[in-house]
Design a protein that fits this description.
binds iron/sulfur cluster, single chain, mainly alpha, binds zinc ion
Length: 113
Amino acid sequence: MVGMYCRHHHPDQQLGSEQLCAQCAELLVYARRRLERCVFGDAKPACAKCVVHCYSASMREQVRVVMRWAGPRMLASHPILAVRHLLAERRPVPRLPEKRRRKAGGSTPPESS
Ligand code: SF4
Ligand SMILES: [Zn+2]
C-alpha cells in the first residue's frame, strides 16, 4: 500500500531498493518495526482496531492517509491481499497479553466478541 501510494503521489522522488521517497521509506521502516514489536504477536489485530495504538500520532496519521487512498485500489491491483486485509480487519480484537495488562495498571481493554 505504501508503494502504491508513493508511486502515485511522489513519482519523481523514489530512491533505494524499495523505490520509495524518503518520507514513505521512513513510514514503511517505522511500520515494520512496530509490527516486529507488536505485543499481540501472531494474534495481532488490524492496527486500526487496536486497543494499544503503539504508533506516534504523526505516523498514525500518515498511515491513515496511505490506507485511505490505497485501500480501495488494492482490490483492483492486489485482490488476494485486499481480501486478506479485509478479513483481518473483521477478526475480533484480542485481549492484551497478561504481562502487558499488569504493566498498564490492571486496566483491561474491552472484551472482544
Ligand atoms: S497498533 Fe496495535 S496491532 Fe498495530 S502494531 Fe501497534 S500494538 Fe500491534
Ligand atoms: Zn512517497
